Amino acid sequence: MSLTILEQRSGRLPAELTSFIGRADELAEITRLFGRGRLVTLVGPGGVGKSRLAVRAAGRVLPGYEHGVCFVDLAPLREPSLLAPALAGALGLPDPNAGTVLDVLVEFLAERRTLLVLDTCEHLVDACALLAEVLLRNAPGLHILATSRQPLDIAGEHTLNVAPLPIPVGASPDPRRPCESVRMFAERAAAVVPEWRLTPENQDAVVLLCRRLDGIPLALELAAVQLRALSVEQIVDRLDRRVLHVRGRRTAMPRHRTLENAIDWSHDLCSPGERLLWTRLSVFAGDFDLESAEQVCADAELPAGDVFDLLAGLVDKSIVRQVTRDGEARYRMLDTIREYGAERLDRRGEAGGVRDRAFAWFAGRVERAHAELASSAQPRVLAWFRDEQDNVRALIDHGIGAAADGPLIRAGLGLGRILALQGLIGEARYWSARILACRDLGGDPAATELIALAGLLAVLQNDLAASADLLERAEARASGTGDDAGLAYVRQAQGMAALYDDRTDEAVRLLTEATVLHRAAGADDVLVPIADLFLSVACCLGGDTATALEHAERAVAVTEGSGDLWCRSYGLLARGTARLLAGAADEALADVRAGLAVKRDLGDRLGVSLALDVAGGCLVSLAQPMQAARLFGCADRLRRYTGSTMFGPQHALLRGFFEQQAGEALGADAYRTAYETGESLETDIAVAEALAERPAPDAPGARPDRPALTPREREIAGLVAAGLTNREIADRLVIAKRTADSHVEHILAKLGFSSRAEIVAWVAAER
Fold first, then answer.
1. What is the pTM of this model?
2. Rounded distance between C-alpha atoms, residue 13 and residue 26, angstroms
3. pLDDT reading at 439 higher than 90
4. At what angle do helices 545-562 and 565-581 cross, to 10 degrees?
């Protein structure tokens, strides 16, 4: 990835931080190729500018795609089986069952006109090829722009070889019309050393440098950084000596060799400590913080107290770049530079040891996070995981093959919970299954709990056969060792399975036993209050709303005391359900809205789908059937994507009752229209309607007359709706941030809005 692309996480196009040089012919060719086919792959060596070109090309064609562009950075991903789930996440889809994720993607994309940018495919080329082929065959409006060091090699693929920037030709190039490689070096050099300018005196050296570096953008950027300490003439001299020294022993293609020579040369300019840190930082799959760098990279040879100064030196040399997450400094290496460091780490014979240390650090962090999940620290823990998930995935994968049993199993327990709390049930099952398959678990009580967790996750995806096998295995282990704490989790999962299987009386018995065992063990885990939640649901299904309310109240009270927002919000939804069935729809809707707001803030998509269902039931009882039908439609779409529902398939009985009432109130045709509108409604819009933050279409004031926006204001409103900050908007449009601030303020004032969320809703409604 280019040094000049802003780090992104969400599926939107990254903002470009520096000027885009040249590539007019390539941009035109990409447009032409998309006129001939629906898959274009940009092919070339690392550092040649494929990612930057893809981002610029996608930005140019964005208006032609009704449903937008989704950018997916595959560089941190190591597991081919996680490719489709990663794409689903980038598209904003809830986590589906691993076995249905392709169906979910096909269904979502089938009727959409979307451009998908798959960046850095080479290490997953077979998986990317299979995924692209399936999606393109089933989604006629889909176009894919891929970047890779080799083609995907599937039918219908058009490839464009991305060459380096043009280099100067002739003995004395015209200084008034510098070629693109010279322009790029000059602009990057001026950014590094503000007073630097391309002059007649240094032009010959710059021309020679661009020729030596074959016009490769990454190599030019690395060279520009050295102007802080060297003149252009000195840079050329050092590079010449490096090239002469290594030429003849490389077997790679010339452009690969040139880039490696440039990185070799940058490596030589680093101090011994910086070189050592560079190699060790290569174990991080994603970005990282200073504490992780100190814990993973330090030892007797590299003291922890030296890491910060050495890291700052690597940042100054553009080997490492700084990124910001929620105001905190984090660091990342480009994929090409990480590979270079990893190769040298292998040569030193340290790769296994440093990765073991990284696994131990992140496994310990996950274990500590697990302990904090049932507390007020929960949002911070989930935010931490979102920052570190690429590293955690990579190191758990390493631990499965190399680490000791105990830390891996405990890390699996924490990871499964963290993923489940974000609605990522499919991925949680994936890692649990891999950990359980790779070890002789012996008599470790934590292993019993991990098996029970795997069984519970299977229940949540209504895979009752798999759940029964796992829970039978866990029960045998717990009973055989007198492990009542582990047996509590088994009984809880068995009770949930019974409820999912319409065995309500058995569910009540098993869940009640689980609550007794949990109390006896003094358990304060985030999963413990779930027993009361499902007891409440079971009682609702049995018609005992008074007892259902008691169980829900207990779950809410316990979680209010602990600070656990995830379970508390589910407790509010369970209490809202009990109150709704008891005839108190107003009180029920207040509970449901409070729970839904938390689910939205936590990013718990599984919980959002449930809350929309219950909110719809409340609105039916409050004589708002059309709004209810819209929420039912959106909830059903989310449920198809998750492959699960938190309160089980029997919850559909309750939903069906209110759906019938709404249909009778509206009439079949009007209900179907409202329902189908809700199915296609963006989740954020549906949530805003359910929370009464945005009036539903048939409510008074839903579409008031608004002053017209100027074309520029409409463009900026669209970027706000795409999730860009004012700084990112300014970078995208090449305007001052103060100008972007002013535009956003004018948009809010014209539309009578007070928040960016209202702009998002307005843009969606206007489309």
1. 0.74
2. 19
3. no
4. 160
